[in-house]
Amino acid sequence: MTEQGVRWTAEQVLALAPDDASRKAGARLGGAGPWSQTGGSASGAVWGLCKGSGSKPYRTVADLSGPAYKCSCPSRKFPCKHALGLLLLWAAEGLDDAAGTSTGTSTEAPDWADEWLAERAAKAARPAADRSDRAAPADAEGARKRAERRAARIGAGVTELEQRLADLVRGGLAGQERAGYAAWEETAARMVDAQAPGLATRVRELGTIPSCVTGWPARMLEEAALLHLLDRAWLGVSGLPEPLAATVRSRLGLQPRTEGEAVRDHWLVLAQYDTASPDGRLTTRRIWLRGLASGRPALVLDFGPPGRPPGLALPVGLVLEAEARFRPGSAGLRADLGERFGPAAPCRTAPTGVSTTAALEAYGAALREDPWLESWPVVLGPVVPIPGGPQGGRQEGAQDDRDGPQQPNESWQLADAEGTSALPVPLTGAGSRTGTGLWQLAALSGGGPLTVFGECGHRGFTPLTAWQPGSSEPVVLG
Amino acid sequence: MNTTTHTTSESTDTAYADGSWDELVGAALLGTERRRGSPGALLAAAAVQTVRRRAGLRPAEAGPRPEPAPHDPRPEPPEPARRRLAQLLAGRAGAGSGSGRRGAAPDLTELLPQWLAAAGQHGYRAPASLVPALLDVARARSDLRPQALALTGPRGLWLARLNPDWRFALRGGSGGAGELPDAEDAVAVERLWQEGLFAERVALLGLVRAHEAAAGPRLLETTWSTERAEDRLMFLDSLRVGLSAGDEPFLEAALGDRSRNVRATAAELLSALPTSALAGRMAERALACVGPEGVTPPAECDAGMLRDGVVKRPPAGRGERAWWLGQLVESAPLSCWRERFGGLGPAEIVALPVAEGWAEELHAAWCRAAVRQGDPAWSQALLSSASAPPAAGPATASLAERAKLLSILGEEERAAWVAEFIRTHGLSEAFQLLGVCVVPWAGALGRAVIEALDSAREAGGYPWSFSGVMGLAERCLDPAEAGRLDVLAAEPVEEGAAAYWSEAFQRLVATLHLRAALHTELAPAD
Description:
Chain A has about 475 residues and is α+β, with helices and mostly antiparallel strands. Chain A has helices at about 10-15, 20-30, 80-90, 110-125, 125-135, 140-170, 175-180, 180-195, 195-210, 215-235, 240-250, 355-370, 435-445; strands at about 35-40, 45-50, 60-65, 70, 260-275, 285-290, 295-305, 320-325, 335-340, 345, 375-385, 410-415, 420-425, 450-455, 460-465, 475.
């Protein structure tokens, strides 16, 4: 069981910051200077008063089990700089000694903090009831009719898309380089109208391939074929086994029909990163977790509207005991975090890694359940990063008559510490990391072996987090 | 074609089922119209192949692995210090511009140099994950390059070999050198001298000279005639540190070098050795021109002067005779003047009236000589009293010259002089002088600066008129002075210049607290 006495590192606190400005402002408030009446409780809450520019100090309280925060300041940033500063102070063991937090004993929370903490505790006790409410909607008949109507609309959209794909292949891909993606943009809009957002996204990506990928005809055929596969799967969804049917529904962008499996475990946060949608309107935050007992990977997604970061933030290297509810389908990867059982605390050990061969096998196995899967989360190690140069290796396909993905000369690899196998590291395209992260990885390795977490897929391995040998401290790459 | 027939044709059409991936791509490029088979069959076959290929991916063959980085035995800084460095490196991009209103938040950019210097003194190595960011810093800021590269050490050099952006680290200043051999190991020294990168060779030269002064010239002579002119110049320049009489024969020989810059540098170095033959020759020439009876500049620049490094053509706007005179005086040992002026000391000599408008030229030359020869007595004399009005006295009025002269004085004397200057003349001209004072500022100096800032506030000025000094204070004030500033920062003023001042003082205090924290964090844990 984790205790409040187990402190986070400052990096972990700063990883909660919604933006760079907050990170800096919070770091400045991380000293004892502006704080008074700070304290903490064994149940994982910290509080304090922070002197601001006004006459009344701000009241700041943070619940580490969330983490969740409340502050009386007017900032709409979340967490605000005061909450970050308070957590940094706590991380540096800088809370008032009178609070006795360093010995793990709790102090009495002041009324204003206690009120909010009690409210949270009450809310936490409720979700089970909330869920049962959702499972039995008031208007079951209406819901069924709505679902039927939507299925019909999707069906029409899928049929139309099939026509579009057939036209593409009938006329030949060769014209696509000139055709531009306006036509595909229009098709994507039709898929939105058909209430199949998953198809819309794929169609939009398909349209961008001729302009930005070397060896684009093969890539475009792959994507068109997988889209075709998804269309066919939807048209025959009633005949599919349930997990695959659930995968197809979720790939089309439908909410799961049923509650997924709930797994209570100690979840280690392996990575967290944001990507912006092409139009910049939506930020997607991916949080990769791994159950320490179950070994199971989980992907938690959160979204932020324009100008606002996603609300959920879980710093890399923390472990939280919680219930993860897995959504049906998609190889059992997507999860939502449910009830938490205590505050998150830093992990004491680095995860153990697997070989490059095992990594690709894991991806291959996952494809059986979700053929549309781009990548699979893998802890790789011990591996040696091989920075780019003319020596870039070749990734071979299962069929001998076909070259692997084209690798530019400056390609990077991650090679097994023993043996001759390696995975290429994609430098461009979806999910690739910036040069900064890769050079960090090289610097950490110094030519020696290390452990790396990342996404392993048909494009190669995208490193996200690394551990030096003998260290449990994760280094977030990039 | 409607969907029904489409489906039918697909189920019966197996034209693409056995096709290889390349055939499928070929067919898709051309279009099924020109080939046999239906679009649906092509897409279905491609889907099967795509998933099958992805599911059956095998690892690639590993390329050549990089050579492991050499071991760096130095310890990493303690965790809080590592975190601070990461914060300083992350904050370096979006820092304030240095002028105008900057708010009450401390300027992290200016703390990075201090962190690097302090970490270097503790003998730490950079945390591996921050090595790339430090190399970027070293690339962007040449003033921080030696410290940043020293900190990244062998790991930094190893990384720099892999990334063309960081190639500078391999050829740049001495901080970038790799592991050096033992100075006693003649074979290893010889080998590195023959084969090493320039930076390594400069570092090797320094090592060898520190071990045995005379070994430096011996090493240089082995390859001197084959070195490129710019390398000869750099090697000579590196002799400046730890210059001794033992270097004289080598420098004397370099007076005949093919390159004019090399000749000039050799002459300059020789003139900094008061006992050298060149200094003697220059003294003879200078004494012939300057004495109690007056100043008579040389009538011509003869071959001997040219050989001793005197530059014949003056820069635009200066008379040639004055130009020659200045060069002679600045290269003559200062000790030669006492006898010439009947046993007077430097202060008395400087105070003597100089006829015919030669005073400025002569004093400037003496300033250069005092700096070059590192002569504190002459420096003091040329600086004169800090409280005297700069333009009135016999001493130099130029702030640039004063700053150089100050750097010759001892730390305490320097600080006391500048403190006195600030108390008398205020801050407006103090910037350059403050720059040569030792960090952190001595107590009296720091107090003088704070008091002067407070006076400027009371006089109704705006803090950004003093942003240069403010910035220096953030970098150089002793954190122990923060308590003194708290009073100034705490006054709750809401508007007008006073509010800006209070903000500026708050920032100064916050920065000082940060600096104090920075040094505490770097102290090794026991």
